[in-house]
Amino acid sequence: MQTTPIRPITLSLREITFRREMLGWIGATHFMLDPLTDETDGLFAALRCTDTVRLRGGAVVPSPVFLVAPPGYFVPSYQIALDEQFADSLDLVVPDDAALLAIVTQRNPLERSTVNLFSPIVVNRHTGLADQFVPASGEAESGWRVRTPLPVSLVGGGEGGPTC
């Protein structure tokens, strides 16, 4: 199933439940998607975990929050092909059933920030069921990276300064 990830984040539900723990976060399955602006169809949102979460080393992380945005915002030509088993596990029938979210890692200075285009979060926009899609191929074969630098147009540097 090919996805069309350029749309802003629009879900019927703000509650998101991962079908398995979020990668690297033990116990992280229940989340709330909170828009960062008052706009209904905002580009950026906070994905806030409502579970007690532990890292692999055992450290407790209270309510981790991830900055997310549609991957097509960073790369308009972005597409991924979900395998049939993955799409079925989220009850995705047609591409419009899926909303894609990319995790943005903010760094200081902003120019060092990155976005994960290799393994997006795929959400059934009708049910809120989600999972992080990891392609069978590696970064080189897929063409996408876990730590993709933010486009220069988003982090500024021109006359108007930062825009992100």
The total tally of domains equals 1
Q: Please compute the radius of gyration using only Cα atoms.
A: 16 Å
How far is the N terminus from the C terminus? 31 Å
Query: Which regions contain 5 or more consecutive residues with pLDDT less than 50?
Result: 158-164
CATH superfamily: BH3618-like
The coarse silhouette is globular
Q: How would you classify the helix and strand content by structural class?
A: mainly beta
How helical, in percent, are the residues? under 10%
Count up the helices: 3
Overall mean pLDDT stands at 82
Q: What fold name stands as the CATH topology?
A: BH3618-like
Q: Can you count the beta strands?
A: 11
Can you name the CATH architecture?
A: Roll
Beta-strand content estimate: 25-35%
The strand line-up of the biggest sheet is: 1-2-3-6-7-9-10
Query: In sequence order, what are the helices and strands, one letter per element?
Result: EEEEEEHEEEEHEH
What's the CATH C level?
A: Mainly Beta
Largest sheet: 7 strands, mixed, barrel
Describe this structure in a few short sentences.
With 164 residues, the protein is mostly beta strands. The chain contains three helices and eleven strands. It has one domain: BH3618-like (Roll), CATH 2.30.290.10.
